[in-house]
Design a protein that fits this description.
The protein has 201 residues and is an alpha/beta fold. 41% of the residues lie in helices and 17% in strands. The strands form two sheets. A four-stranded mixed sheet has the order 1-2-3-7, with helices on one face. The protein is elongated and about 55 Å long.
């Protein structure tokens, strides 16, 4: 397995932000960790062991699996559909972040503090503040990781969304599948085992 320098240097907070920016990912130690033993045993045809089990093959799940495998964990990802799914397979691909390399290239003055203020104005004040702070500080780094290290294609323009006064919407060239494809390639390179058509119970 090869692991890029960027994957090795990704902090826990960056990893959490990457996962938090997509969908809920459940990580456990076995395929039937949450199922009563009697129910699981009745239907088991094969038992597989791993260090990390990721449930869900969207952008967050695949990224989590890629990072776990890159850190040396024997990692399995299961997806109930027959393909990589989640919102990343359907979304348009607009990612928000502050103080990114692209913003600097375009002369956009932005900061995590300003981004946090925007998130709080847009309803973040009703959510866990620590998570909002983490998002404001880490989403920009995640966009840089996708663009600079994984070479996800982005449009050459930033856009304003909603009531925002700062151009911090970074748009994938085609759709969010651009980013999903890149993290999937990293996951495969790091040795993640993918299993499709396999729902979790």
């Amino acid at each position: 397995m090869r692991q890029s320098e960027s994957a090795r240097s990704l902090t826990r907070r960056q990893f959490a932000a990457l996962v938090g920016g997509g969908m809920l990912v459940l990580v456990g130690g076995g395929l039937f960790g949450c199922t009563p033993k009697s129910e699981a045993s009745a239907n088991v045809s094969k038992t597989v062991s791993c260090d990390v089990l990721v449930v869900g093959g969207g952008g967050a799940g695949v990224s989590a699996a890629a990072m776990a495998a890159g850190a040396g964990a024997n990692t399995i990802l299961i997806e109930k559909e027959a393909w990589l799914a989640g919102s990343s397979s359907l979304a348009l691909g607009t990612l928000y972040g502050a103080n990114t390399q692209m913003q600097k290239e375009k002369g956009v003055d932005d900061s995590a503090e300003d981004f946090l203020a925007y998130l709080l104005r847009r309803g973040g004040d009703k959510l866990d503040r620590d998570i909002q702070v983490m998002c404001s500080e880490e989403f920009g780094k995640t966009i840089d990781w996708l663009r600079e290290d994984l070479h996800v294609p982005f449009k050459n323009t930033l856009s304003l969304k909603g009531t925002d006064t700062v151009a911090r919407a970074h748009n994938c060239k085609n759709s969010a599948y651009d980013a999903l494809s890149a993290v999937t390639a990293l996951a495969r390179e790091n040795g993640v085992q993918f299993h499709f058509g396999m729902p979790a119970e």
